[in-house]
Amino acid sequence: MSSQTQRRRAEKLLEAKFDPRLKTYSYVGGIVIFTITIVGIILLPFWLIFGKIYINRYFDNLYCELTTRALHFKKGVWFQTERTIPLDKIQDLTFKEGPILRYFGLSYLMIETAGQSAQGVSDLSLTGIVDARNFRKIVLDQRDETTDKQSYVTSAPQTENGLNQDQLVPLLQDINRTLKNIEQKLENRS
């Protein structure tokens, strides 16, 4: 397969934009966490001074892109995480917004994939995507389109020997006749 064909198959469809209010939400969340923990109280002054710098860098490194075949995500400042989730592995995208997220005008999407290790645990959470409901709909529509194409392509499967469905039917009929002959011979012996 040529690289041009591969590029065409993995064409970029949509790049998610993250809401700048995510910065305020993260900064305030950090203050709350540092305030309620014993060790955090010691670190709170550092967060108040350097927290906004860290959050700005984190926000600048957030990236999420939908292609025709996968969902790509990148985040992190010191420790960067990059994930690629094939669309055919996505089971569900759960849209959530609680009272605090709603106060900040944010929501988050939990992406659940096939073969997760624990029930109710998401493989990936995306907080602060602008128009998250629409992004969720587009991703699910693209997933459905991708899986529909795959099922169409595999509707005439081939066996390990390279036989297609048309060649497999006569072979199975032959096997069926042979099994019936064996069954008759066993009945005649008894």
What does this structure look like?
The chain is an alpha+beta fold and 190 residues long. The chain folds into two domains: 8-153, Pleckstrin-homology domain (PH domain)/Phosphotyrosine-binding domain (PTB) (PH-domain like), CATH 2.30.29.30; 158-184. It has six helices and seven strands. It has helices at residues 3-9, 21-36, 38-61, 99-103, 132-153, 165-189; strands spanning 12-15, 63-67, 70-75, 81-86, 90-96, 108-113, 124-127. The strands form two sheets. It has a four-stranded antiparallel beta sheet with strand order 1-2-3-4. It has a three-stranded antiparallel beta sheet with strand order 5-6-7, with helices on one face. Strand 3 (70-75) and strand 4 form a beta hairpin.
Q: Identify the CATH architecture of the largest domain.
A: Roll
The structure class reads alpha+beta
Overall number of structural domains: 2
For the record, what CATH class of the largest domain applies?
Answer: Mainly Beta
Strand content: 15-25%
**Helix proportion:** 40-55%
Secondary-structure element string:
HEHHEEEEHEEHH
Give a short account of the largest sheet: 4 strands, antiparallel
- CATH topology group of the largest domain: PH-domain like
Any idea what the CATH superfamily of the largest domain is called? Answer: Pleckstrin-homology domain (PH domain)/Phosphotyrosine-binding domain (PTB)
Number of helices: 6
The unreliable regions are 1-7
The oligomeric state is single chain
